[in-house]
Amino acid sequence: MKRPLSWRVTGALALLMLIGCGERDVQTNSQAPAGTPTTGLTATPAPTDTLVPTATPSSAASPTPTPTGTATVPLATEQYCKIPAAAVEARIDALLPQMTLTEKVDQMHGRGDVGAINGLWETPDLDRLGIPGFHMVDGARGVGRGTGHATAFPVAMARGATWDPDLEERVGEAIGQEVRAKGGSVLLAPVVAVLRHPLWGRAQETYGEDPLAIGRMGVGFIHGAQQHVIASAKHFALNSIEDSRYRVNVTVDERTLREIYLPHFRMAVQDGHVGSIMSAYNLVNGQHCGENVHLLHDILKGDWDFQGFVESDWYAGVRSTAPSALAGLDIEMPTPIYYGNPLVAAVGAGSVPEATIDAAVRRILRAKLCFQLDTQPPVVDPTLVESTAHTNLALDVARQAIVLLKNDGAVLPLDRSRRRSIVVVGPLTNVENIGDSGLGGSSAVDPSYVVTALQGIQNRAGQVAVTAVPDVPLSASDRDVIAGADAAVVVVGFTGKDEGEDNDRTLLSLPSDQEQLIADVAGLNATTIVVLEGGSAITVESWVSNVAAIMMAWYPGQEGGNAIADVLFGDVNPSAKLPITFVRSGDDLPPFPNHASQVTYGYYHGYRLLDHNGVAARFPFGFGLSYTTYHYANLNVASSSLFPGGTLHAMADVTNTGGVAGDEIVQLYVGYHGSSVDRPVKDLRGFTKVHLEPGETKTVAIDVPVQDLAFYDVSASAWEVEPIAYTVYVGPSSAELPLSAPFTVSGG
Fold first, then answer.
1. Catalytic residue numbers?
2. What is the DSSP letter of 446?
3. Which CATH architecture is the domain 9-17+100-383 placed in?
4. So what CATH class is 630-745?
5. Is pLDDT above 80 for 5?
6. Which stretch of DSSP H or E encloses residue 655?
7. Quick check: 145 and 445 in contact, CB under 8 A?
8. Are 167 and 400 in contact (CB under 8 A)?
9. pLDDT band for position 20 (50/70/90)?
10. Does domain 401-613 bear CATH number 3.40.50.1700?
């Protein structure tokens, strides 16, 4: 999102001059299409608030008017606000007339006189009226490194592999608490972007490739974080390229936009009631996201009735004054280049109505008052940062995020009573590898310690001898050690130097020297286990058949080494499943022209693209092995004839047929038959995680609102549920769905 802390206004202006910034005319009115599908989720109660509502103190400068009654406040405002919304809106009604135009505009930009203060990016206070500024900080996997030490959780892609929104809510709550404990009030997370291609440098920051899964995980994070601070869902929208992100224009048709690239943002707004949205750097259909009328005005604030504020991405996220303000960009961060004095002048010249300023400031004040920044400001408390509870949570998440991709002959788990020696090999053996760490990496976190893979294995090995061979190429003595060990664990993959913000990855496969290392080790030791680290999918074709087992550990956070060892030794039964597709070849993916200034995003990517083309994945979306086995049976659909506005109620029995307790992620997909438009072979429409003891059977229920089966009818600017035949599929992955049942929808 941002540049290094040392990069100030001079650097920003130089960048803007390089990539070309000019104010352009844009239309500000467009008919908003009617209706959107639901999210497929049962309504979730707002999380218990740690901020205790208090009465707003009365003062001559900032009186608190008598509430006008909740009947006059829209439902969306009530859902957004942490305290009674009518009183908040009445107070805003009283504050706005007391503010000068300059004071209003000051609310709409970052502080231009400073950079980040203690790692926090500020907007101005208005002391005269008791209005605090925002204190913003990144936190996709922990509080941004500019603030000092903080808990480093596994990256969001790893957390996506848990398929557990409740667990993600706990992560959001922990990061939100640490942000608040450092004096922050706005957490610039979660990243809810579709992973269209695994080479995207920031793939590690999002939750996967499927809009529903991304949305549910994002909502979980938001619910947790907003127990303490304001969350900001980003980057709005179609942001999935780094190397040309400041200038690339993404063209996309309206149906693809609505069905593929926006549902997760809509869920963040309508289910998560997220406090703010960050606009993206790129252009969409010819307009920069920070001045994109269709995205900000028509859809976000129109169709979805978003009640919060929109802030720009840093520096180059704003390219104009009047067009940005008129489109609905509320705050320019981190300094006023186009807002501030230019915006005041634009109002004076009549190119921006003061009513537009008032509307933006109302949103900003609503966030500050609804989240009680005026009465319960953050209090710095170092004891809450990197606490034992939080590092234990980081360990738990890392354990639940590791995906077992291959386990021939059940070589895993490693039995300590039967293994006398293990050799740990590879360039990442003893590297603190927790994700993006580049100068531009806004998601970077600085924990006080990191457990490497080698350290974790040593910590958990017990009486098993552990030898490290980190160097490549292998020496003769290294080869002897590897050949003589009972098992060889090869730790390979990528680091923050290979992928991250401003840095798309260049390889789908491992680097050639790492592939050669795997071949060499596998030739010496039949029990070769490969541990992959990285932010997204890695092709494995040149070596997959030569090794006994493969684990995908992602960037596993500061406790990652312990988690890797826990899974290797069987102290934890792996339950994670891939939130993305691991293809066999780059030819199976959409194009990734990451240096182009013009790209087109089509309707298909990920598992839907492979289904559409009849191509098999190496490791499919939703796939993951366990140390136990599961059997699916008895799919029952409560009603096979449904109507729009109804709900598909599906139930199935899942049995643990192995000898180890485990957690199974049950997935539900829907296929379409006889549609008037091109539809995917199947779409993920629900999932849940169930714990099963050995031999235990549970009936798992998943509900899907019929409205979630709608497609976006461009000609009608509306969502349409078709009266056609459908099939519901249930199983352990997108490629293994043993249960199916037909149903129909009538009266669409």
1. 313
2. B
3. Alpha-Beta Barrel (3.20)
4. mainly beta
5. no
6. strand 647-656
7. yes
8. yes
9. very low
10. yes
